[in-house]
């Protein structure tokens, strides 16, 4: 789902409604949703969303109500995340939206083309960007504008249709990318083109078509003088930008034609006036949409604005008529479907959804173009927000990688980097190792599953103010440990959350709590190793898809833990008995020791202690009340005996 604009007063806007609809919760808020609506209205911290569930449990509420509160909590946290994410990305998105605003205001063709190339180079961070336009009269294509170019021969190149990478893009109307131009034999090399590319020193080149309907009018390029792999998102973003650029060229050419017609055809004065009004209206629409997105609007805000402009109902959806949607994507125009109009929202060949105008069968060309422009702006919004979210995920992964590898040992710098991501390295954290347990037969499917796991883990880390990174065929997370929480609880919740997100079991091993990570970055690597040992132990014990920490494995946890927490093991195993003896001055520990020494025979135990057998029985009953009725089962009895021996070692295991 897309993220939406939030009105003043911290009230959830259409984004919250969209999320609620996704969850099947489009109904009036009841007693389960009301506390979370109040928390959303107050802008409360994420930790506050646990309070209604905790109160319900403390009051002994029915399981159904607690489950409903849990669902409402997750939904409210998702809404809160949407709202926070938009505020964080507003500054990043504004630079991209300025492009749409500037292009909407340009009137000179040369200025339009220069702006296109400059923005393309800036958006992708390449060494060179250039634009070629087709010359129908000569039957070739020529270099019209370059940015960052230093070679004169390259700037004056003319390419025959079908020659070079640009010729392949123009011929197929599809984007093409090459990591190494001179080693790529997918397109026809010529001496002239290769010489120009060699003079410029270009290696990696990405080209996307400039389309007006089904026709290619030119190619927009971004190139580097070093080997580089252009990501799919970058290709899609440049493709969307090229689509907006082609529309701007079309508008500029239309203005030029209009001015020429006004100068040469006085008799068509009324027609020219009408066309000018149409063009001004189209420009007005562009300015209005640009202003809306610059204020931080979302795709549903664009739909609402276009609804007012077109005096109808415009919706963003991904469930439009499939055939009409595909026709719109292919032709690049809005198409009519019964009484509706459908405009595909696409970028670089990727279909992102559609804008649907309801109940307006008779749509004039100007309104049709307005709907198409709105679809282009919507695609820019969706791609830009996706890029911003993925960039933040990469930054979180880089910081965690540095902590794991102890590359950055400057505490102040580590704290600053974490603070920019709203993480606190001085607080207590748990390091978790997560891994998918179902292996795909196909390597591509396996890689896709791991990417889904990393994406889900990154989203969880963002909402919990933690960090996440892909490592060792799985994912590692660093999540804060809140008051009253345990490493085991965090591990189990994380396993459930990630498993639900990727729709297959995810096993999670957790470390013991760690803190002061900025001053002691080595601690993260040690904790990660402990988490991986717990993960492996879960698999060995047949508990794949579960979450656990070393404290869950009894005396085995002493072997799994990074630091041997002997005192903690003794406390968890026989702590209540030790405390009882200390308070009451009784001999329960001594009785237990004698009981195990005597082969768990009450008769021999009473001889060892020189007491009556009834006394032994009474003491053992007290032990059962303190430790639980299963304390004599073999596995539990083994832990109790080990704890007794460790307790006898003295000071290191004394209670504090």
Number of helices: 23
Strand order of the largest sheet: 3-2-1-6-5-4
Principal-axes geometry comes out as: elongated
Portion in strands:
5-15%
Spatial gap, N to C terminus? 52 Å
How does the helix and strand content classify structurally? alpha+beta
In this structure, how is the largest beta sheet organized? 6 strands, antiparallel
What is the number of E strands? 15
The Rg value, from CA coordinates, equals 33 Å
Low-confidence stretches: 1-29, 557-562, 651-656
Helix content: 55-70%
Report the mean per-residue pLDDT as an integer.
77
Question: In terms of topology, how is this protein built?
Answer:
Blueprint: H1 14-22, H2 34-42, H3 51-58, H4 63-105, H5 109-124, E1 128-135, E2 140-147, H6 152-155, E3 158-160, H7 164-172, E4 176-178, H8 191-200, E5 204-212, E6 215-224, H9 232-264, H10 269-294, H11 299-310, E7 313-317, H12 322-331, E8 335-337, E9 340-347, E10 350-358, H13 365-405, H14 411-420, E11 429-436, H15 443-463, E12 467-471, E13 474-480, H16 487-502, E14 506-510, H17 522-540, E15 547-549, H18 556-560, H19 566-584, H20 588-597, H21 602-609, H22 613-627, H23 634-648
Parallel strand pairs: 14-15
Antiparallel strand pairs: 1-2, 1-6, 2-3, 4-5, 5-6, 7-10, 8-9, 9-10, 11-13, 11-14, 12-13
Helix pairs in contact: 1-4, 3-4, 4-5, 4-10, 4-13, 5-9, 9-10, 9-13, 10-11, 10-13, 11-13, 15-16, 19-23, 20-21, 21-22
Detailed description of the structure:
- There is one protein chain.
- The chain has 656 residues and is an alpha+beta fold.
- The chain has helices spanning 14-22, 34-42, 51-58, 63-105, 109-124, 152-155, 164-172, 191-200, 232-264, 269-294, 299-310, 322-331, 365-405, 411-420, 443-463, 487-502, 522-540, 556-560, 566-584, 588-597, 602-609, 613-627, 634-648; strands at residues 128-135, 140-147, 158-160, 176-178, 204-212, 215-224, 313-317, 335-337, 340-347, 350-358, 429-436, 467-471, 474-480, 506-510, 547-549.
- The strands form 3 sheets. A 6-stranded antiparallel beta sheet has the order 3-2-1-6-5-4, sandwiched between helices. A 5-stranded mixed beta sheet has the order 12-13-11-14-15. A 4-stranded antiparallel beta sheet has the order 7-10-9-8.
- Strand 8 (335-337) and strand 9 form a beta hairpin.
- Helix 10 runs antiparallel to helix 11.
- The longest helix has 43 residues, at 63-105.
- The chain is elongated, with a radius of gyration of 33 Å.
- The two termini are 52 Å apart.
- Residues 1-29, 557-562 and 651-656 have low confidence and may be disordered.
């Amino acid at each position: 789902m897309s993220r939406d604009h939030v009105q003043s007063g911290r009230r959830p806007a259409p984004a919250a409604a969209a999320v609620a609809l996704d969850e099947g919760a489009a109904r009036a808020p009841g007693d389960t949703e009301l506390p979370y609506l109040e928390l959303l209205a107050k802008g409360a911290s994420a930790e506050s969303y646990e309070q209604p569930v905790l109160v319900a449990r403390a009051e002994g509420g029915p399981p159904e109500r607690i489950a409903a509160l849990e669902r409402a909590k997750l939904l409210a946290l998702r809404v809160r995340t949407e709202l926070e994410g938009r505020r964080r990305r507003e500054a990043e998105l504004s630079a991209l939206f300025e492009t749409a605003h500037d292009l909407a205001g340009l009137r000179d063709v040369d200025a339009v083309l220069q702006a296109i190339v400059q923005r393309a180079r800036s958006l992708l961070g390449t060494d060179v960007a250039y634009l070629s336009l087709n010359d129908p009269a000569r039957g070739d294509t020529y270099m019209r504008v370059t940015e960052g170019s230093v070679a004169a021969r390259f700037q004056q190149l003319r390419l025959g249709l079908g020659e070079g990478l640009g010729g392949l893009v123009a011929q197929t109307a599809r984007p093409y990318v090459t990591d190494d131009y001179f080693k790529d034999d997918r397109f026809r090399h010529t001496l002239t083109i290769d010489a120009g590319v060699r003079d410029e020193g270009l290696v990696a080149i990405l080209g996307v078509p400039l389309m007006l309907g089904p026709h290619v009018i030119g190619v927009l390029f971004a190139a580097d003088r070093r080997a580089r792999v252009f990501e799919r998102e970058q290709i899609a973003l440049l493709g969307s930008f090229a689509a907006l650029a082609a529309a701007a060229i079309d508008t500029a050419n239309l203005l030029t034609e209009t001015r020429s017609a006004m100068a040469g055809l006085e008799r068509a004065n009324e027609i020219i006036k009408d066309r000018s009004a149409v063009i001004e209206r189209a420009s007005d629409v562009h300015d209005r949409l640009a202003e809306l997105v610059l204020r931080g609007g979302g795709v549903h805000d664009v739909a609402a604005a276009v609804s007012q402009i077109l005096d109808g109902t415009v919706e963003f959806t991904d469930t439009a008529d499939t055939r009409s949607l595909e026709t719109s994507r292919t032709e690049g125009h809005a198409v009519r479907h019964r009484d509706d109009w459908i405009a595909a929202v696409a970028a670089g060949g990727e279909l992102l959804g559609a804008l649907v105008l309801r109940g307006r069968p008779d749509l004039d060309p100007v309104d049709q173009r307005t709907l198409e422009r709105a679809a282009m702006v919507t695609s820019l919004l969706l791609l830009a927000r996706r890029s911003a979210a993925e960039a933040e995920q990469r930054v979180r992964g880089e910081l965690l990688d540095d902590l794991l590898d102890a590359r950055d040992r400057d505490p102040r710098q580590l704290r600053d980097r974490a603070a920019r991501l709203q993480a606190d390295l001085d607080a207590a954290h748990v390091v978790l190792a997560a891994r998918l347990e179902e292996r795909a037969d196909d390597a591509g499917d396996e890689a896709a599953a791991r990417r889904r796991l990393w994406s889900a883990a990154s989203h969880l880390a963002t909402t919990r103010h933690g960090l996440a990174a892909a490592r060792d065929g799985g994912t590692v997370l660093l999540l804060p440990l809140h008051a009253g929480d345990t490493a085991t609880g965090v591990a189990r919740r994380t396993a459930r959350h990630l498993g639900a997100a990727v729709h297959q079991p995810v096993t999670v091993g957790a470390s013991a709590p760690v803190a002061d990570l900025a001053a002691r970055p080595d601690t993260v690597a040690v904790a990660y190793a402990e988490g991986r040992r717990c993960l492996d132990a879960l698999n060995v014990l047949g508990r794949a898809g579960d979450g656990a920490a070393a404290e869950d494995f009894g005396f085995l946890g002493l072997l799994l833990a990074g630091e041997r927490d002997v005192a903690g093991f003794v406390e968890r195993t026989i702590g209540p008995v030790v405390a009882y003896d200390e308070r009451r001055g009784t001999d329960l520990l001594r009785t237990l020791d004698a009981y195990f020494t005597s082969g768990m025979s009450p008769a021999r135990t009473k001889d060892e202690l020189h007491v009556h057998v009834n006394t032994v029985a009474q003491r053992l009953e007290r032990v059962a009340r303190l430790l639980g009725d299963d304390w004599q089962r073999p596995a539990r009895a083994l832990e109790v005996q080990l704890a007794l021996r460790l307790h006898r070692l003295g000071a290191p295991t004394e209670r504090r």
